[in-house]
Amino acid sequence: MSKSITFPGGRLAQALLICSLAANVNPTPSIAQTTPAAGFSTRADLNPLLAPWAGPYGGVPAFDKVQVSQFKPALEAAMAQNLAEVQAIADDKKAPTFENTIAALERAGHALDQVQTVYGVWTGTMNNPEVQAVQREMAPRMAAFGDQITQNGPLFRRIETVYNSPDKKKLTPEQQRLTWVYYNNFVRSGAKLDAKAKTRLSEINQQLAGLFTRFSQNVLADETDSVLVLKTPADLGGLPQSLRDDAANAAAARKLTAAGVITNTRSSIDPFLTYSDQRKLREKAWRMFVNRGDNGGEHDNNALITDILQLRAERAKLLGYPTHAHLRLDNTMAKTPEKAMALMEEVWTPAVARAKEEVADMQTLAKKEGATFKIEPWDYRYYGEKVRKARYDLDQNEVKQYLQLDKMREGMFWVAGELLGFTFTPVTNAPVYHPDVKVWEVKDKTTGKHVGLWYFDPYARPGKRSGAWMNAYRNQERMDGEVTTIVSNNSNFVKGKDGAPTLISWTDATTLFHEFGHALHGLSSNVTYPSLAGTSVVRDYVEFPSQLMENWLPTPQVLQRFAVHYQTGKPIPQALVDRIEKASTFNQGFETTEFLASALIDMKLHLAGAQKIDPDKFERETLTQLGMPSELVMRHRTPQFSHVFSSDGYSAGYYSYLWSVVLAADAFGAFTEAGGPYDKAVAKRLKDKIFSVGNTVDPAEAYRSFRGRDPKIDALMRERGFPMKDAKASKPADKKATGKKS
Q1: Torsions phi, psi of 600, nearest 5?
Q2: In the predicted model, is pLDDT for residue 553 greater than 50?
Q3: DSSP bridge pairs for 424
Q4: What cellular component terms from Gene Ontology apply here (predicted)?
């Protein structure tokens, strides 16, 4: 989720955790020392970011009124107000209760939540030097702000009193869960440390915030500034017409006189590596992409990674954990790094074996064509596609002619209607931050009741981080009346020229459905408290609904209706669908190995403790020890691994995609064992037991209530065509699990 910037812990906890996504290098005095709380309401008149969201649908972000110069004062004022709200709770003379402490904290920080939402949109999708300057200044201050709350002794004592009170049994199950979330988050944030340790912890958090921002900005600089210029028509050799057009459009957008330009994003690089018959140019494109953050000079990330790892190790020790990995996994389904490692190692061996088989097939084909070289990483996709075409008579470019972005989006809407009872209607009365962004109103198709809004930002552009992800602009809740959610999906597709349809690959279409799964998780939320809403669940569970949603793309109901040729309008031929199905396990060695390599490096880096690490050396030596095939590379090399080093988000947690895909494969089995992918009874159970409950229920219990048992790894291994050890064939996946990549 990549994907999502929502976290366990509602308005206050979301504010505490989201601050770690920003950054700066030079820690400054805390907000409480520099900005008074007084004057907030009057400043709202001067700064639109401080005004409550107004307009239809319960209010919408005023994206059309944002100026970058407003971010710093708005963040300062909103944090000051939040600190005042929190201090009032801490100073309450009445005995602590759920209502005057936990519920009061849920209501605090509303203004800050709205400011940070808009700020997050700009840092993720509209980033420029002016925004980056704000990030560098504000990140450590925001980290210090978060620590001021979690290190507030009187406040924590009130939370602890409610948590330990016999009266807690009288609370509703959701209230008990919320109380546990607050108590657990505060303890894990150092609330029980002594004064000296708290001071050091805050220093670490501020330093990390600065390093995270520098890391992100370095990767963005390499993605923005580096392009592969295709100078002559010969440089376009092998590319289908749609990719030639994309390259020409990219050159025109950059005002370059050239046959085309390949930008430094996956959605541009991967197709080029798949089809270009210019081997030297493939190598240049590959090196440009995999060396982001690893080129020396001012944008090199290696020294930053070393510092981040050292600080994380020190912080874990302060909090009483052996390593950062143990700290991060303590509050997950896996519980321990050992369980996550056991799963990855079980899948690693068959994945590598399959990758070696794939390479052998490519080498044989290349030799038949007269090639005298050994397959290299920049050859893998090119010859893999040739093998796919030879073995299955399946050309990805042929499939792409039937995958129009707009039609795939309509297909997602249709699936959401069939499974969850949603309708999507485009609206124009919600401001957007860029002309490419479109908005839909989501309703219950039976009652017509408004459910929420869905924003879609599909195209790549300078200043937008690469990848695909989901955001929650506003969580669903009903503490003081019904509040509906606002969610978004973000991608980096190459925009078609002059209104021409944007054609996407099968992999891109799968990612589109994946991210939409996160959005549906948020839209389905039906809880009382915002901290527990939607995607506010543990990291190795949050990818489950999104991984699950990928299963509906290849269903005949979607393909026959929405996979139509961009020129003729005819549906995809059944013969082609059959070939797609037959090739479904093709290249799974590559897909799984490149993902697992990143996940294993992530975990091993964070299990190394206080060891001072040279990232490039560690990556190289660890991959050698693992037996990584030389013909492919990690999906995310360490110097550009933003999941792990642009925040604490997926640190020691990239394995969670694997864990979640075990859940997803097993859960889809509930449909296939019943009436098929659109079985109404199973779909209702999915919505009631998984999609709507957020974090109100322990995830393992939620899964059991849906499936009737713990998950098993069997379905995942079958799905990928990997052999299973008989003795382990029915082992519950709560001791393991498996995932796709982002």
Answers
A1: -70, -40
A2: yes
A3: 442
A4: cytosol
**Any alpha helices (H) in 524-655, and if so which ranges?**
539-549, 556-562, 574-582, 588-607, 615-626, 642-645
Distances (CA, A) of 336 to 96, 327, 331, 653: 34, 9, 9, 11
How confident is the model at residue 44, as a pLDDT? 57
Handedness of CA 446, 451, 453, 454 (dihedral sign): negative
Comparing CA positions, the residue from 449, 547, 459, 575 lying closest to residue 57 is: 449
* Neighbour-count burial of 556, counting CB atoms closer than 10 A to its CB (0-12 exposed, 13-18 middle, 19+ buried): middle
Query: Do 264 and 365 fall within a single domain?
Result: no
Task: Please tell me whether residues 88 and 153 are part of one structural domain.
Answer: yes
Please report where in the chains the tokens 């190598």 appear, as a residue.
Answer: 283
Residue 376 located in a structural domain: yes
Same domain, 335 and 451: no
Q: What's the total number of domains in the chain? A: 4
Kindly report whether the global pTM for this prediction surpasses the value 0.70.
Answer: yes
CA angle 139, 141, 145 (to 5 degrees): 115
Across residues 225-236, what is the average pLDDT? 96
515 is catalytic: yes
Residues 242 and 152 in one domain: no
CATH at 638:
1.10.1370.10
Calpha distance 324→705 (Å, rounded): 32
Q: Which amino acid is residue 395, in one-letter code? A: D
Nearest to 522 by CA among 701, 695, 330: 695
Q: Are residues 378 and 410 in the same domain?
A: no
- Contact residues for 566 (Cβ-Cβ < 8 A; gap 6+): 401, 402, 404, 501, 503
Q: What is the pLDDT of residue 734?
A: 37
SS3 readout for 649-687: CCCCCCCHHHHHHHHHHHHHHHHHCCCCCCCHHHHHHHH
The answer to whether residue 542 is domain-embedded is yes
The pairing of beta strand 485-493 with beta strand 450-459: parallel
What is residue 37's predicted lDDT score, i.e. its pLDDT? 37
Binning pLDDT at 50, 70 and 90, where does residue 45 land?
low
Could you tell me the residue range of the domain that residue 274 belongs to? 226-291
Q: Are residues 556 and 482 in the same domain?
A: yes
Q: How far apart are CA 470 and CA 468, in angstroms?
A: 7
Quote the radius of gyration of the chain (alpha carbons, Å).
25
pLDDT tens, position by position, 499-537: 889 999 999 999 999 999 999 999 999 999 999 999 999
Instruction: Work out the average pLDDT over 585-602.
Output: 96
Residue 470 CB-density burial (10 A; 0-12 exposed, 13-18 middle, 19+ buried) = buried
Looking at the domain assignment, is residue 202 inside a domain?
Answer: no
CA 625 to chain centre: 29
Domain-embedded: residue 255? yes
Annotated catalytic residue, options 137, 418, 515, 543: 515
Mean pLDDT of the chain: 91
Q: pLDDT tens across 403-445, in order?
A: 999 999 999 999 999 999 999 999 999 999 999 999 999 999 9
pLDDT at residue number 103: 98
